[in-house]
Predict the 3D structure of the following.
Amino acid sequence: MSENFHKKLTPKKDDLPIINKLILAYKKWQEFLIHFPKTSRFSLGSKIDLLFIEIIELIYLAVTMNPTSKIPYLVKANTKLDLLKFFLQIAWRIKALDDKKYISLSADFDELGRMLGGWIRQLKEKLPPKTEE
């Protein structure tokens, strides 16, 4: 029964590399969050976690939509990814994250950004050209 439940909730294209990469990066983040200093865990750590969840949500929604409806969700996910990178850098600067963890997550975010940007470009190329009136 639980197999059917999970199959119904999972988008048809759940094997997309961007979804898999996002899940792996979030899993890594969860392992790092445990070691965040208590003074930052429930403020900056929570903000980073919330942004991560919002990006996952936006990409999940985009996967399930028709191509023309995807772009606004992906653009918003890309903006939130930029914010996530910014807050991650703050966490690193205040020493809530060590160099190794920061570099590891930054590499994941850079790859996610390239994947997201490529997906947005691909969708925009498929749109019919705008006509000027």
Remarks:
- The CA atoms of residues 11 and 64 lie 6 Å apart.
- The chain has six helices and no strands.
